[in-house]
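Submission sheet (multi-component)
Chains listed below:
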Amino acid sequence: EVQVVESGGGLVKPGGSLRLSCVASGFTFNTHTMSWIRQAPGRGLEWVSSISSTTAFIYYGDSVKGRFTISRDNAKNSLYLQMNSLRAEDTAVYYCARDGGIGSFDHWGQGTLVTVSS
Amino acid sequence: AIQMTQSPSSLSASVGDRVTITCRASQGIRNDLGWYQQKRGKVPNLLIYAASTLQSGVPSRFSGSGSGTDFTLTISSLQPEDSATYYCLQDYDYPITFGQGTRLEIK
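Outcome: structure written.
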């Protein structure tokens, strides 16, 4: 069974940093692009970042570019999101998702809540 | 960035109704489009990918069509459990973008 489990969320002050982790199981992690997607309270879904299977290709949304860094450790079946210079508008549930291409994020974690507030 | 515009933003329909939600891309995206269902407080769930391919385990009353810029999600016979918000997504090009969502209420 495919499982994706995020961790690392919490309360952080504006300007602070946080590192999210995602551990995957039940599939060959090192052959899949992985992504972070977020959802602010009461709002829609927003793609944040993606990283290809070999880390050759990395992409960021404009709202996080220069502040967030995505990475992965294929030996540990793990995906990470280092978030720096956090702002109130980064408050959201952050989901880790397997990217199957052609519109298919086919497996999502339960999400981890990040709250940026003083 | 490619903009995805869904319509309507919300709708109310009765059990058994045929429901259609549309998604328009600001430029051609071939068939690189997915549809997602998100029930209140739950994780989004993939319904359709490649514009018209039904994800495994998704009821056959859901179907998708379209290519290029105009896409449609259809629920052939609405069920009470279909109450949710529906999103389209394009991954033809980065940044990946979602539609703003369509909230579907059961009368």
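Remark: The CA atoms of residues 15 and 57 of chain A lie 28 Å apart.
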